[in-house]
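Design request, tokens follow.
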């Protein structure tokens, strides 16, 4: 007989069928049935589930999938459709066998589906259809402090119409535990939930479940990198609902309450919580500032920098119900909504690819969720004041350098950051026109955050986007790197600022020839080079030798 894991189906194998020549008398003699029907499939599922109870039951995904497919065929107008639906609608009945997720690592072209592996039978309310974190189904093996739902899509992807109800966008909502609404004419159901007020299987784990699972994962015995990635993966599903605008206003207001005090945010010292008595959580938007602060024990003890990002996720917008011709508008609208709500991300270029790249980066992070919780960038939490000593207001060689560097920065930005340049050109031009340069004997910057005060001598600093202060010793040592960095940060931040500062450094050596090497075109005739009024006025006075190298 054909063995199906923990039991025998009363059907002959193909080899025995050939021997018996389908002779009814021989079938009866050996106790075989000529056909295997719906009643047999339901009885087998019921018998296996009752015999196994909570214990492990061994069979293969392929065998059980065949049983479910037999039942699914009945729902397509078969005479036993009502019996099949009644079987699955029985409350608390264990009727879904879910395997050990590790079967997928077994050898074979079928992805391990033919292998007999361990699994258990579950009631439908202990299962969900999908899990976009790709973490929850594996939690069954992590011995967590909370029960986690089993995920059916991972194992029975071909049976979506059988197990699930196709929900309309309104009923689907945020996808966190959605089961649809009664009698919705826009939803479609031809499976086991047909005729019921709600689907028997939720689209995914609920918001409460995601938070509880993330909390339990953070407390688990796994290594910190594993816990960090798992926790961010689970919370990233909630964050994605915020990013796409699918989380209702009511649920969005509930999120901070639900996460209050939960130590789920990975930092350099473990997991921290928002809104408790621990250190202030901040996003790391300025690595230099973070390093400066964390060199001082008092500041390091009061601030915890949270790591919010995993890998960017390519999102299929059609799965969100967005038509191809609406992709650009949808991405632009959602990114603007995120920016307005305080989500921190690099401003994208105003092109379809730029919008898609920025959206993918946010989809692979928990930044939208952190913004909802009020977690701000480190640079916004730190109050910074500059204290220049012995300021020189007279003409200085620094003015000559700036008169050359600012138009070069403009030319680089126009070529390398076209979208940003178009969007911010007027604002940047106004910033440059109002810029003043000051040389001082010493420059001290004082950072204060959460009651901690850090004093740091600085070689160069821009205050309020209007005044560039440079320590005299910096210029005497011909150390232009901090000056170039300060100039670059007038326009961009992070890696973009580093690239611009490095490029300006090369132009100080090679002049305009470096633009030719990089194939960066000159500004068009109708676009005036950026000039700082105060710098140009200083240059008109009697000047020392200009240090910036010209094209010659």
């Amino acid at each position: 007989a054909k063995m199906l894991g923990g039991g025998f189906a009363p059907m002959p194998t193909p080899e025995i069928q050939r021997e018996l020549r389908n002779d009814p008398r021989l079938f009866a003699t050996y106790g075989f049935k000529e056909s295997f029907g719906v009643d047999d499939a339901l009885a087998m599922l019921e018998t296996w589930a009752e015999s196994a109870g909570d214990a492990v039951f061994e069979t293969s995904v392929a065998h059980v999938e065949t049983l479910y497919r037999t039942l699914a065929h009945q729902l397509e107008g078969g005479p036993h459709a009502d019996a099949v639906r009644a079987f699955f609608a029985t409350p608390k009945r264990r009727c879904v066998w879910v395997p050990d997720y590790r079967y997928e690592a077994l050898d074979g072209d079928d992805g391990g589906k033919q292998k007999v592996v361990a699994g258990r039978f579950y009631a439908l309310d202990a299962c969900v259809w999908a899990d976009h974190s790709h973490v929850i189904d594996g939690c069954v093996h992590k011995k967590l402090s909370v029960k986690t739902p089993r995920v059916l899509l991972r194992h029975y992807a071909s049976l979506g119409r059988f197990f699930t109800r196709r929900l309309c966008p309104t009923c689907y909502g945020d996808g966190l535990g959605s089961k649809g609404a009664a009698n919705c004419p826009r939803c479609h159901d031809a499976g086991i939930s047909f005729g019921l007020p709600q689907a028997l299987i939720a689209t995914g784990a609920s918001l409460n479940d995601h938070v509880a699972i993330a909390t339990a994962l953070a407390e688990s015995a796994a290594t910190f990198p594993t816990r960090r990635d798992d926790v961010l993966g689970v919370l990233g599903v909630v964050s994605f609902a915020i990013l796409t605008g699918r989380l209702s206003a009511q649920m969005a207001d509930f999120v901070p309450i639900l996460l209050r005090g939960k130590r789920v945010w990975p930092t350099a010292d473990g997991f921290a919580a928002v809104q408790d008595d621990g250190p202030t959580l901040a996003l790391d938007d300025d690595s230099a500032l973070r390093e400066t602060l964390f060199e001082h024990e008092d500041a390091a003890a009061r601030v915890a920098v949270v790591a919010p990002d995993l890998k960017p996720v390519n999102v299929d917008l059609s799965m969100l119900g967005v038509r191809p011709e609406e992709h650009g508008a949808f991405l632009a609208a959602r990114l603007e909504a995120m920016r307005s709500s305080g989500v921190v991300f690099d401003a994208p270029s105003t092109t379809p690819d730029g919008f898609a790249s920025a959206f993918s980066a946010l989809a692979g992070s928990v930044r939208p969720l952190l913004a909802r919780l009020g977690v701000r960038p480190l640079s916004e939490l730190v109050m910074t004041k500059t204290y220049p000593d012995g300021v020189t207001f007279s003409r200085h060689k620094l003015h000559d350098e700036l008169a050359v560097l600012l138009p070069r920065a403009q030319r680089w930005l126009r070529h390398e950051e076209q979208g940003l340049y178009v969007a911010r050109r007027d604002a940047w031009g106004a910033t440059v026109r109002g810029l003043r340069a000051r040389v001082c004997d010493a420059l001290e910057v004082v950072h204060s955050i959460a009651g901690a005060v850090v004093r740091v001598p600085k070689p160069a600093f821009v205050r309020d986007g209007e005044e560039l202060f440079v320590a005299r010793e910096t210029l005497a040592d011909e150390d232009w790197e901090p000056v170039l960095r300060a100039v670059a940060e007038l326009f961009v931040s992070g890696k973009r600022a580093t690239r611009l500062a490095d490029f300006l450094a090369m132009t100080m050596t090679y002049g305009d020839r470096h633009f030719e090497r990089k194939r960066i075109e000159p500004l068009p005739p109708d676009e005036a080079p950026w000039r700082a009024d105060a710098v140009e006025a200083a240059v008109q006075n009697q000047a020392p030798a200009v240090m910036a190298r010209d094209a010659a």
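Comment from the thread starter after seeing the answer: thanks! The CA atoms of residues 226 and 362 lie 21 Å apart.
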